[in-house]
Design a protein that fits this description.
The chain is α+β, with helices and mostly antiparallel strands. Helices cover 50% and strands 12% of the residues. The chain folds into 2 domains: 7-80, Glutaredoxin (3-Layer(aba) Sandwich), CATH 3.40.30.10; 87-228, Glutathione S-transferase Yfyf (Class Pi), Chain A, domain 2 (Up-down Bundle), CATH 1.20.1050.10. It has 9 helices and 6 strands; from the N terminus they run E-H-E-H-E-E-H-H-E-E-H-H-H-H-H. Bound molecules: glutathione.
Length: 240
């Protein structure tokens, strides 16, 4: 083991699956190195066998490379003191973060198919028209079902503005990450150079404007977290 800060590696073109560990490290004021890489650099790392499960994100801690976004986020949450100590509360926070993973998997599933090609499991972009069709369904059915559940968890949490227990945990940052992605004014929907932008003639696609309106508790959570000085400063710096 080493005392140097952990290195988070992810693609340089989206917040994607690396944003939750980033938010956790930042909120908890834990030093880390945010290293973004190109697709070519990713392919080199993958082909040299350095990536567990051959994908990003990864977190390098000393001599150990950890894969899988939720495992990385859980490590970050423990380091940041944002992982509940009580076993039941920990399990509820895991449940919320598993739902975060599900929602991201389904989101990326709108864009890509995972196929085996040349003996390798890879991602293949879907046609733009299929992406739009899937995104419409995602935002009409899948997302509202999940948002309602998150909202109810806060509602049932004994007057707390958070999802689990009396204070903020990594589960709140996971939901915050999703709410930022689902904001129709977010750069990923409005900036043609970003990887998830849907170009004409099928796009531009944007999530429904009033998506959050039925969920007052989630609106309040979003406000609390976005006003936290460290998080507000971080969000300002993002190019996407
Ligand atoms: N279950 C993994 C999925 C990771 C994943 O799908 N990573 C994508 C980027 S979002 C990737 O590395 N894609 C490159 C490829 O498979 O070609 C996690 O949650 O970390």
């Amino acid at each position: 083991m080493t005392n140097s800060p952990p290195i988070l590696r992810y693609f340089d073109d989206a917040k994607g699956r690396a944003e939750l560990p980033r938010l956790i490290f930042i909120y908890g004021n834990v030093l880390f190195e945010d290293r973004t890489i190109s697709f070519q650099e990713y392919e080199q790392a993958r082909d040299s066998g350095k990536l567990p499960f051959e994908q990003l994100p990864t977190l390098e801690v000393g001599n150990t490379i950890i894969g899988q976004s939720s495992a990385i986020a859980r490590y970050a949450a423990k380091e940041a003191g944002l992982y509940p100590l009580d076993s039941v509360q920990a399990a509820i926070s895991d449940m919320v973060v598993d739902a975060w993973r599900d929602l991201l998997d389904l989101f990326y599933g709108c864009y890509v198919d995972r196929i085996v090609e040349n003996n390798r499991l890879i991602m293949k972009m879907r046609d733009v028209s299929v992406r739009v069709e899937r995104l419409r369904e995602y935002f009409t059915v899948t997302v509202p079902m999940h948002l309602k559940r998150f909202d109810l968890l806060i509602e049932d949490n004994q007057g707390s503005p958070f999802l689990v227990g009396p204070s903020l945990t990594w589960a709140d940052l996971a939901v915050f990450d999703l709410l930022c992605t689902f904001d129709e004014t977010a750069k990923l929907w409005t900036t043609p150079s970003t990887v998830l932008y849907i170009p004409q003639p099928d796009g531009p696609f944007q999530p429904p404007k009033e998506l959050l309106k039925p969920y007052p508790k989630l609106n309040a959570l979003h406000l609390i977290i976005s006003k936290t000085p460290l998080i507000a400063a971080w969000l300002q710096t993002h190019p996407y």
